Amino acid sequence: MNETRVAIAGLGAIGRVVARRLADGMPGLTLACAAARDVATAKAWLDAAKISCPLVELAEFPRHADLAVECAPPDILEKICTPMLTAGKRVMVLSAGALLPRPDLIELAAANGGQIIVPTGALLGLDAVTAAAEGEIKSVRMTTRKPPNGLAGAPYLVANDISVEGLNAPKRVFVGRAREAAKGFPANVNVVAALSLAGIGPDRTTIEIWADPGVTRNCHSIEVDADSARLSFAIENVPSENPRTGRITALSVVAALRKLTAPIRVGT
Known about the structure:
By secondary structure, the protein is an alpha/beta fold. It has helices spanning 13-24, 39-48, 61-64, 77-86, 96-99, 103-112, 126-132, 155-159, 178-184, 190-198, 247-261, and strands at residues 4-9, 29-35, 67-70, 90-93, 115-117, 137-146, 171-177, 205-211, 218-226, 230-237.
């Protein structure tokens, strides 16, 4: 089996975990290159971690890699995806919320034989939701509770003058459709975007978002009513060094990469 060359866009909390795992060795995969907004900091980290990895521009990814992993701010998603998808290659996208207003990227993948992969990330049960979507799903509802500092600064809160400082009780800060939530909380609820893509879409998937000073983890609960099953599941994610992101997100990327070349693949 030929090795899959992997590029990493962004060497923050998630990208560093992925880079370490690839550098330590994963069968059938090799760390080909990376890109970072702060090249000097990224190079210093790579040197300290003793990871040999060239830092290149995003536009150069197709020359070096077969698959790019997006671990970057959502506003540069197009710069990561466009070169790779135009070249008929694959991109693993963590900023699933940024995909919703960019259907042209999905069209670009289809036109050129490329592929966008959305890993499970900080959620669970996407296999079951995807299976249920082969039948009829009547409703998908999600509730997210995060420590207030994990929501602070979200565009929706700023635009609506909603404060989450000094809370001593849970505060519901949003209720609505997944599409609106992804726009208003681009760094916080990629989980609901992934859920909507797996199921009935961003305009029929609903979500409540709570700033809850009583929790220390990022908590998500999901209810799915379908003709094949009624699904109910919950997850409490330990935050990474970035409070907006769960520690399991990076591990989900590693698991998704490993599945690409594994001799046995478990799950849809």
